[in-house]
Protein: Na+/H+ antiporter subunit E
Organism: Aerophobetes bacterium
Amino acid sequence: MKKLVLFLVSFTAWLVLTWTIYYPALLIGILISIIIGFWFGDLFTQRPRHFFQIKRLLYLLYYIPIFLYYCTLANLDVAYRVLHPYLPI
């Protein structure tokens, strides 16, 4: 179960990073995800049943807008500091 969870997470990360449905890219992603799942599956999570709980996914959906808000604020702050003529560091 641990290896399957790691396979799904790593393949999802592969799909997000490559952002393509080109057949050879999908095969390479599946192959690499299987290798990662077999090598590191025992080290990934202690309780794989708890990994896909609805409560955890709801917390993630709650966290994403907050994270994006503060990430945007931080980026605007850095842009202000870089572009400000007196450089208030």
Remarks:
- Residues 1-51 form one domain.
- The chain has two domains: 1-51, 53-89.
- The helical segments are 2-18, 23-44, 54-83.
- The mean pLDDT is 89.
